[in-house]
Write a sequence for this structure.
């Protein structure tokens, strides 16, 4: 027993990272090394650079115990963002909680397209449908302080989280958060320069084939129905009643939904200049349509 204790006391940052990486790989975790580093940095309240500069630093028994619990949760395929309670998006940190969709890097393409569309409008009015953690609206508020933003969600937990994130980033007064399904909270005649959304667009049958981490996120924010396009259709159908003439609708889509998304906007007979924006990998990611003047 004494020999075991002496050996365990020699566990350094380097030893822990190597062991955890191997353990995570056996569990099928693709980002094994990155996850090991993020969790250990969080456990020690340091950044990842500190780990590399202090490879030979031994961990105390209490540090090992705390880290062991984080590793256990990750091994059960709980997302790292939920374990540490935060997620980086647009080089900013957002609160992440179980039950609210975690912001993805792909959604930054939607943010970029939204900011470009708003750039030439003085005091633009933006409606975000399905705000989730609030990341999109918050980034827009930070990058375009003149924008007047309304962000909706059907889930009270998501709205609470979005409001907390807005306060965290100092833009709570720039965004009006509204509880409700799509356009239901709005009166007839209420109009916006732009409507954007990262709607649920994963086909129902596909969800069961995704990585286990998906089980920790809200199905409502992921499941787009049999073809993944149910909510996209509803947003497109209702948008003409809430856009100003010449206003734009932008929606994130799956990489294999380009043709269907184009068709949906065309079938409304209300949109022109329908375009697809690709992500960094060259895959279709955002569909944009402009309301006929």
């Amino acid at each position: 027993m004494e020999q075991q204790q002496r050996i365990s006391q020699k566990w350094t940052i380097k030893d822990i990272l190597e062991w955890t990486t191997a353990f995570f790989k056996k569990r099928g975790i693709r980002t094994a090394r990155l996850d090991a580093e993020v969790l250990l940095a969080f456990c020690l309240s340091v950044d990842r650079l500190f780990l590399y500069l202090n490879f030979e630093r031994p961990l105390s028994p209490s540090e090992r115990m705390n880290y062991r619990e984080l590793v256990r949760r990750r091994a059960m395929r709980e997302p790292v963002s939920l374990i540490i309670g935060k997620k980086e998006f647009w080089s900013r940190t957002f609160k992440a909680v179980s039950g609210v969709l975690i912001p993805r890097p792909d959604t930054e393409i939607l943010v970029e397209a939204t900011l470009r569309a708003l750039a030439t409008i003085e005091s633009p009015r933006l409606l975000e449908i399905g705000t989730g953690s609030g990341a999109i609206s918050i980034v827009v508020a930070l990058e375009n302080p003149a924008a007047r933003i309304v962000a909706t969600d059907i889930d009270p937990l998501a709205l609470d989280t979005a409001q907390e994130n807005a306060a965290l980033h100092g833009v709570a007064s720039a965004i009006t958060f509204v509880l409700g399904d799509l356009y239901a909270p709005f009166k007839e005649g209420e109009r916006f320069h732009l409507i954007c959304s990262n709607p649920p667009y994963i086909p129902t049958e596909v969800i069961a084939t995704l990585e286990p981490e998906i089980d920790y996120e809200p199905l409502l924010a992921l499941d787009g129905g049999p073809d993944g396009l149910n909510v996209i259709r509803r947003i497109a159908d209702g948008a003409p009643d809430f856009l100003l003439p010449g206003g734009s609708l932008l929606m994130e889509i799956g990489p294999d939904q380009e043709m269907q998304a184009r068709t949906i906007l065309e079938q409304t007979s209300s949109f022109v200049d329908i375009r697809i924006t690709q992500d960094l990998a060259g895959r279709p990611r955002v569909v944009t349509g402009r309301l006929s003047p």
Remarks:
- The domain at 89-291 is CATH 3.40.50.150 (Rossmann fold).
- The CA atoms of residues 141 and 147 lie 6 Å apart.
